């Protein structure tokens, strides 16, 4: 493998950042300074950046508790993205969020560089279930729960697949409710629009489950941890 590819995959950054490391004579291969990006390296070579040993990280899977006011993107000119929450030492090339949560939505977000798994989890045919806790302005009723069980027509005419609505609390006097909503697709603002189609408004939204994954109660908003081997196996359906 070319040295510049190795350095990018080991987490040193973009092509131009890697070039800078090389130009600044910060990279050594087997104890010798190396400045050529084209140098071929093999698995037994000892490669260091600023005296720190580098290893290829391979596939990584992080379970992030997405906080509010961070966008689900890999890069943005002006706003903080979920990738800004990842420590440089945990960063790997092609790390990306699987699916999208709105800027004001919190909760479980999977980040990985495993493109195949990301593709499988998002494939419409796979019907991976996602469960959201929501606080609603307005009282959700049994009629709403029944309507969710059937295709629901959104205000723009789009039709959703059957979903599940569980009412956790409803307060007639204060006109608010707390619910769990499970959907198996990922239309734009889907939960908010489904609730709006019933004449009510989502005022707080948190994803608590995605397929075999559950939001880790030990994580605080903005924190993440690697998935366990058993979580990875379950996600991959093994
Ligand atoms: N549905 C929404 O409306 N927003 C989200 O962030 C996720 C699902």
Give the SSE layout:
Blueprint: H1 3-12, H2 15-23, E1 27-29, E2 32-33, E3 47-49, E4 52-53, E5 61-66, E6 96-97, E7 106-112, H3 115-122, E8 130-137, H4 142-148, E9 152-153, E10 159-160, E11 164-171, E12 176-183, H5 190-197, E13 201-210, E14 213-214, E15 224-226, H6 229-235
Parallel strand pairs: 7-13
Antiparallel strand pairs: 1-2, 1-3, 3-4, 5-7, 5-15, 6-7, 8-12, 8-13, 9-10, 11-12, 13-14
Helix pairs in contact: 1-2
The structure holds uracil.
The site of uracil has 8 residues, from helix 5.
Structure description:
With 238 residues, the chain is an alpha+beta fold. It is 21% helix and 29% strand. The protein has six helices and 15 strands. A hairpin with a 2-residue loop joins strand 3 (47-49) and strand 4. Helix 1 (3-12) packs across helix 2. The two termini are 31 Å apart. It binds uracil. Uracil binds next to helix 5.
The count of β-strands is 15
Q: What's the architecture of the largest domain, going by CATH?
A: 2-Layer Sandwich
Number of helices: 6
Q: Which fold does the CATH topology of the largest domain refer to?
A: Alpha-Beta Plaits
**Main sheet: strands, sense, barrel:** 9 strands, mixed
CATH homologous superfamily annotation of the largest domain = Pseudouridine synthase I, catalytic domain, N-terminal subdomain
Question: How far is the first residue's CA from the last residue's CA?
Answer: 31 Å
Number of domains: 3
Derived from helix and strand composition plus strand pairing, the structural class reads alpha+beta
Q: Kindly provide the name of the CATH class of the largest domain.
A: Alpha Beta
Associated small molecules: uracil
């Amino acid at each position: 493998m070319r040295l510049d590819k190795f350095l990018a995959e080991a987490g040193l950054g973009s092509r131009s950042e890697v070039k800078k490391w090389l130009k600044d004579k910060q990279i050594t291969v087997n104890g010798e300074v190396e400045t050529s990006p084209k140098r071929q390296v093999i698995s037994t070579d000892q490669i260091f950046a600023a005296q720190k040993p580098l290893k290829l990280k391979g596939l990584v899977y992080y379970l992030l508790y997405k906080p509010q006011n961070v966008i689900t993107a890999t890069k943005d000119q002006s706003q903080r993205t979920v990738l800004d929450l990842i420590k440089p030492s945990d960063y790997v090339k092609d790390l990306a969020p699987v699916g999208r949560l709105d800027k004001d939505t919190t909760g479980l977000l999977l980040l990985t560089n495993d493109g195949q798994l990301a593709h499988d989890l998002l494939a419409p045919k796979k019907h991976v279930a996602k469960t959201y806790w929501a606080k609603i302005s307005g009282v959700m009723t049994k009629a709403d729960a029944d309507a969710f069980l059937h295709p629901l027509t959104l205000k723009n005419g789009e039709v959703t697949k059957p979903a599940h609505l569980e009412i956790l609390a409803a307060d007639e006097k204060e006109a608010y409710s707390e619910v769990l909503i499970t959907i198996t697709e990922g239309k734009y603002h889907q939960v908010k629009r489904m609730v709006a189609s019933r004449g009510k408004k989502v005022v707080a939204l948190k994803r608590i489950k995605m397929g075999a994954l559950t939001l880790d109660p030990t994580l605080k908003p903005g924190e993440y941890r690697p998935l366990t081997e058993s979580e990875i196996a379950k996600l991959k359906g093994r």
